[in-house]
Amino acid sequence: MAVNGKLLLLSIATIALPCAIGKVHLEERFDESWTERWQPSTWKAEENLAGKFEHTAGDWYGHPEADKGIKTTPDARFYTIWTELEEEFVNKGKDLVLQFSVKHAQNIDCGGGYIKLLPTSSKDKMPDFGGDTPYSVMFGPDICGSTKKVHAILTDKKGRNLEFKPTVPAKTDELTHVYTYILHPNNTYQILIDNEVDRNGTLYEAHDFLLPRQIQDPDAKKPEDWVDEAQIPDPADVKPDDWEQPETILDPEASQPEDWDVEEDGEWEAPRIPNPAYKGEWQPKMIDNPAYKGEWEHPLIDNPEFEDDEEVYLLPPLKFVGFELWQVKSGTIFDNILVTDDVEYAARFAEETWGASKDKEKEMLDAVRAEEEKKRKEEDAAAKAAAKDADDGDDDNDDEADDDAAEGNIDFGDEDEDDEGLHAEL
């Protein structure tokens, strides 16, 4: 169920749930000191497949300093970098908000743009943080070919990474977008894009946390005399005597061509055409089956393996945040990462960062694209002019040759010498 608007966001936060405590566990705006907090992973480094992050606002932005983030570079690399929360985050009885901005400035065709929240138990694995490092939440856009979706994967208490079953399309343009994931302690969730609710619902519907409460009785079988055919052929229906007709007949309007030679062409036969009287294969009409008992339904029993869990939202203590990505085409800029239990603050933070810059950023991108289009048209015009000049030059040379030929000024090389030799012989 997709719901639009901030009203639902605020109403769930302030009415359906207890008041937020208001603890910010991470607020990363990527200022000049960002390298003091973020650690690159050694994963893929020995294989020379580890990419690097560049501190930049890109070629278009709302503010040249405030909009600086970390940009993936170069192409075809794995990108892994991580940092610690200010203190361990235990989300029992609390909202969990994970929010960050993504700008696919490279017009991405294949690459991840998601972020991960990792548990305290992954501490020893963080220096080599990579694809196999256990995480608790993986959230954000993923674009590759026809795949253009937002991940919201949760790891359950058994260590299973549970995919997000609803479909949330990812933004595919070259502007900055804010992605927000909210996990509520009443086992519901919200996904916001650009501070507007895109999807919400229960965790039980969105993920396969629980086995089904009931299953089909493995000992039950359909009775052998069960009739589940709703209709049967009418036994009283009889095929009409004139039903059987050939599918094709000789064309009665065809005649032997006048130039037909029996000795050379053989005996002439009229071509065959579809028979208008042909009715196809006869089938008796269908009637309701008087013995029909309906569709047999497999009886259900309680699932002996079912285990209820009234706190599927509850994650292990969280301590780390990181990006673990593969990008064929680099150039994505990440910024303004927020981990908090305050839903309202997250909304204000998004407006303060992304909201304050989005209009100017779009204006600058439009100007960049307009300048590129202008330059392209100028280059096309110059190329066409050069080609025309080359064609005109060829035409001028051809005209000069024609003039020389008309005036008898064409040099035929050794023709005079040949003429002298011929005269000497004579």
TrEMBL record:
Tell me the Gene Ontology biological-process terms attached to this UniProt entry: ERAD pathway; protein folding
Residue stretches of biased makeup (Basic and acidic residues): 357-390
**Entry's SUPFAM superfamilies?**
Concanavalin A-like lectins/glucanases, P-domain of calnexin/calreticulin
* Any one of the GO CC terms: endoplasmic reticulum lumen
Where an alpha-D-glucoside binds, per the record, is at: 114, 116, 135, 142, 324
Q: Where is the region Disordered? A: 357-426
Q: Does the keyword Metal-binding apply?
A: yes
> According to the UniProt entry, where is the signal peptide?
1-22
Q: Does the keyword Nucleus apply?
A: no
A Pfam family of this chain: Calreticulin
Q: Where is the composition biased (Acidic residues)?
A: 391-420
Q: Any S-S bridges, and between which cysteines?
A: 110-144
Q: Which InterPro entries match?
A: Calret/calnex, Calret/calnex_CS, Calreticulin, Calreticulin/calnexin_P_dom_sf, ConA-like_dom_sf
* Recorded superkingdom: Eukaryota
Where is this gene product found? Endoplasmic reticulum lumen
Q: Which GO terms describe its molecular function?
A: calcium ion binding; carbohydrate binding; unfolded protein binding
Q: Which UniProt keywords apply?
A: Calcium, Chaperone, Disulfide bond, Endoplasmic reticulum, Lectin, Metal-binding, Repeat, Signal, Zinc
Q: Which family does it belong to?
A: Belongs to the calreticulin family.
In its UniProt entry, what is this protein called?
Answer: Calreticulin
Organism lineage string: Eukaryota, Viridiplantae, Chlorophyta, core chlorophytes, Trebouxiophyceae
